[in-house]
Each structure stands twice: as structure tokens, then as C-alpha cells.
Amino acid sequence: MKLTSSLRAGAVAAGRGLDFTHAVIGGGVVGLAVARRLAERAGGETLLVERHGDVGRESSSRNSEVIHAGLYYGKDSLKTKLCIEGRERLYDLCERWNIPHKKCGKWIVAQTPQQLEKLQQIHALSNSLNVPTSFIPLPKASALEPLILARTGVLESPTTGIINSHTYTHALLGALTSAGGDIALNTSLTSVSALPSGAGWELTTLDAATGEESTITAATLVNAAGLGACA
């Protein structure tokens, strides 16, 4: 997609002398969520740049699509805090936006005494975090799921779930555009340089369809390019 003058008009007309207030690189879940929130701010113009022809084409849709409960990362870990809070907010968002999901729960199974000890540690940690887990007696587990082998223990996590990541990313895209944000698909970032006096950033992009380069400026740059973030 060529970055035409129509996409630039808002920020220049606002008197900042830059094409956009915010430029976000990468149309995965993180980039879309960040761009959506930035676009909702009054008085700004947000552009999302994505190298593929659609959003969510890499890590955001090439994963297990699990909504994690927050069992593994340590009591004082920021990852634990964000996982637990984010889990509940994501379930709420799925309900409000009709995104396909299921709070199906999961089993963590142990085959040896050493693995059972690890399950007990996870159970103790989850209790300290107010994340529900419980042990299922082996005879009951065998009756419920006869094809699952669990020799020494089964720990159930009822708040673990799954989500349709493709619907989720497109819901975020819809929210971004509804908030007035712009998106440039099939557009790769080829270079970035800082503007003088910390005024912002100059980005050079390449249109995959035409091979044409464009240069834009933005006051704020967010790198959410996932595995390509360091390229």
C-alpha cells in the first residue's frame, strides 16, 4: 500500500509538521492492541505498518492459541501479574466482542514421583496467587479421560482456555480503524532514522506490490515487529 498524501493530511493539518503522531510497526496482536489504544487518544493520528497482506500472519496466529492461567512464572514475576490480569481481561473482551473462545481448562499430568513433586509445587504457587488448581484422583481421571496416561498425578487448571486468534486479530483491526487509525498492508519498513532535536522519527517503507518507496515522519515510533523487531 502506498502511503499517499491522504493518509498524511491529518497530522500536517494539525500543525505539528509531521505526517503522524504515532507509527506502529507490526500487525500482530501486540501491534494492533497498541495502535488501537493510541488511535483512541484525542488529537492524534496513528498509522500501523504491516509487511504482509493481512494482519496476524506470523507469531500471533502460529501458536497454540492458549489463554494461560499464570501457573509457571514465579510469585513475584511481572509475567505472572500480567498473565493473570490479562487472562481475565481477555475473557471479558471475548465475551463483549463475540470472539470465539472457550474456558476449557487443562490437565497437567505426572508420570513419576519427581513430576508429582513438581505438580505439588505448581499447586502451592497457584494457591498463593489465588489461581485455582486442584488434584483429580487418578481413578476419576482415568474414568473421565481413559486415553490419557497419568501414573502419579493429575493437576487441573480450570481457568486455562483457548481463543480463535484469527478472529481476535481482525477484531482488533476493526477497533483500530473504527477509532480513526490507518493501516498500510503489504508495506515493509526498510530504514528508520531519528529526526533532529528529538522531534520524532523518519521511516522509509517499501510497497510490496509496486516496489515504490515512501518516506513518512512520526512523533512516536512503536516497534512491535515480533521476530523481525531486530532486523
Description:
The chain is α/β, with parallel strands linked by helices and 231 residues long. Helix content is 33%, strand content 25%. It has 6 helices and 12 strands. It has a 6-stranded mixed sheet with strand order 9-2-1-12-11-10. It has a 3-stranded antiparallel sheet with strand order 3-8-4. Helix 2 (29-39) runs parallel beside helix 6.
Number of domains: 2
The total count of strands amounts to: 12
Instruction: Report the top-level CATH class of the largest domain.
Output: Alpha Beta
Q: Which architecture of the largest domain per CATH? A: 3-Layer(bba) Sandwich
CATH topology grouping of the largest domain: FAD/NAD(P)-binding domain
What is the number of helices?
Answer: 6
Q: What's the CATH H-level homologous superfamily of the largest domain?
A: FAD/NAD(P)-binding domain
Average pLDDT taken over every residue: 93
- Strand % is 25-35%
Q: Catalogue the unreliable spans.
A: none
Query: Secondary-structure element order, as H and E?
Result: HEHEEHEEHEHEEHEEEE
Assign a percent range to the helix content: 25-40%
Biggest beta sheet attributes: 6 strands, mixed
How are the SSEs ordered, and which strands pair?
Elements lengths: L4 H9 L6 E6 L3 H11 L6 E4 L16 E2 L10 H20 L3 E2 L3 E5 L2 H16 L5 E2 L2 H7 L8 E5 L3 E3 L1 H14 L3 E3 L2 E8 L6 E7 L5 E11 L8
Parallel strand pairs: 1-2, 1-12, 2-9
Antiparallel strand pairs: 3-8, 4-8, 5-7, 6-7, 10-11, 11-12
Helix pairs in contact: 2-6
